[in-house]
Write a structure and sequence with these properties.
This protein is 46% helix and 17% strand. By secondary structure, it is α/β, with parallel strands linked by helices. The strands form 2 sheets. It has a 7-stranded mixed beta sheet, sandwiched between helices. Strands 3-4 form a two-stranded antiparallel ribbon. Strand 8 and strand 9 form a beta hairpin. Helix 1 crosses helix 4 and helix 2 (29-41) packs antiparallel against helix 4. The longest helix has 18 residues, at 80-97. It is globular. The structure holds S-adenosylmethionine. S-adenosylmethionine (SAM) binds at residues 18-20, 70-74, 78, 109-112, 116, 142-144, 147, 197-199, 214-216, 245.
Length: 282
C-alpha cells in the first residue's frame, strides 16, 4: 500500500463518519493530527496505521482517527458582532413570538467543547428580568464523542476562558476550581450536550426556535451541505432562525433558507409551497 492509497482510505473514513472532506489542500494536516496516535500505537507512518484498522480493535481506532482529524477550533462569543445581533434583534423577536409559551429551544449543531453553548446561555443570564419564568433549553451536539464529553465536563483552562470572555463575564458566570473554570449553576441549568451527526435525522419531536451551525459546513461537499440544510430545516420552527458562521452563507447552497434582511449571517426558513410539499411527500 502506498502513501496516497492510505491517505485516500483515511479521507474516506472521515467522510463516511462525518461528511467532512479532506481536500488535497488539507491533507498535510493528517500527519500532525495523527502524531499522538502514531506514538501510542507504536507506528511511524500512515500506511502502518491503516493496516491496524483491519485489526481486532480496528473500529475503536477508526473512531479515534476520525476524532483526531476533526477541526474543533472554538472560543467564547466567536464573531462577537453576531452575538450582538442575536441579543439585540433575534432574541427579542423570539421573546415576542413565544410570549405565551415562555419556552425557547435552541440547537448548536457542531458545538465542539461547548463555548458557543455557554456564550448563548450567558446572553440569557445577563438579562434575568426579561427571561425570568422562561424555560430556556440549549442543546449542543457534535459528531465527536470526545468533545461532547469535554463540553459536559465544562472545565476550561485559563487560556480557554480568556479567549473571547471579558474579566467581568468570567467572574460573573464561572467559578474557579483547582482543575479550571466551570460555568455556574445558572448556565448549567440551561444546557445539555449530546453526540449527534448533523447529517442524521433529528430524533427530537419539538420544533427548534433557533439553530446555530457555525464553522461546520465549510468542509462539506455541496451535496452534503444541502443535506445538512435539509436536516436543519426540518428541525426548525417555521418562524425560527438559523445563524451561520461569519464566512458562511446559504446563497447558492439551498432553497430552504433566505437571508434575513439587514441581519448578516442570519437566515429565515422558506416554507415549500403546498404543491411542492405534496410532490416531495409523494
Ligand atoms: C470548527 S468547530 C466549530 C465550533 C463552534 N460551532 C464554533 O463556531 O466555534 C466544528 C465542529 O463541528 C463538528 N462536526 C463536524 N462534522 C460534523 C457533523 N457531521 N455533525 C456534527 N458535528 C460535526 C466538529 O467535530 C467540530 O467540533
Amino acid at each position: 500500500m502506498n502513501d496516497s492509497v492510505s491517505t485516500e482510505i483515511i479521507s474516506e473514513l472521515l467522510s463516511e463518519h462525518t461528511g467532512q472532506q479532506l481536500t488535497e489542500s488539507r491533507q498535510w494536516r493528517i500527519g500532525t493530527a495523527l502524531s499522538g496516535i502514531y506514538r501510542e500505537m507504536g507506528v511511524s507512518n500512515l500506511e502502518a496505521l491503516v493496516c491496524l484498522l483491519d485489526g481486532p480493535d480496528g473500529s475503536r481506532l477508526a473512531r479515534r482517527v476520525v476524532e483526531a482529524l476533526l477541526n474543533n477550533e472554538t472560543y467564547f462569543f466567536r464573531d462577537r458582532q453576531l452575538f450582538d445581533i442575536l441579543s439585540r434583534h433575534v432574541l427579542p423577536d423570539l421573546a415576542e413570538k413565544r410570549k405565551n409559551s415562555k419556552r425557547l429551544s435552541i440547537w448548536s449543531a457542531g458545538c465542539s467543547t461547548g463555548q458557543e453553548v455557554f456564550s448563548l446561555a450567558m446572553l440569557f443570564a445577563e438579562q434575568p428580568g426579561r427571561w425570568q419564568d422562561w424555560t430556556i433549553e440549549i442543546l449542543g451536539t457534535d459528531v465527536s464523542g470526545k468533545v461532547v464529553e469535554a463540553a459536559r465536563d465544562a472545565c476550561y483552562s485559563q487560556f480557554e476562558i480568556q479567549r473571547g470572555l471579558g474579566v467581568s463575564q468570567m467572574l460573573a458566570f464561572f467559578d474557579e476550581t483547582i482543575k479550571g473554570w466551570r460555568p455556574n449553576a445558572r448556565l448549567q441549568r440551561m444546557v445539555k450536550f449530546e453526540q449527534h451527526n448533523l447529517l442524521d435525522p433529528q430524533s427530537r419531536s419539538c420544533q427548534i426556535d433557533l439553530v446555530l451551525c457555525r464553522n461546520v459546513l465549510l468542509y462539506f461537499s455541496g451535496d452534503t451541505r444541502r443535506l445538512a440544510f435539509d436536516r436543519i430545516h426540518s428541525a426548525l420552527a417555521s418562524d425560527g432562525w438559523l445563524m451561520l458562521g461569519a464566512g458562511e452563507t446559504v446563497i447558492g447552497q439551498t432553497d430552504h433558507f433566505r437571508p434575513a434582511p439587514g441581519k448578516q449571517n442570519f437566515y429565515e426558513p422558506v416554507q415549500a409551497a403546498f404543491g411542492q410539499s405534496l410532490r416531495a411527500a409523494g
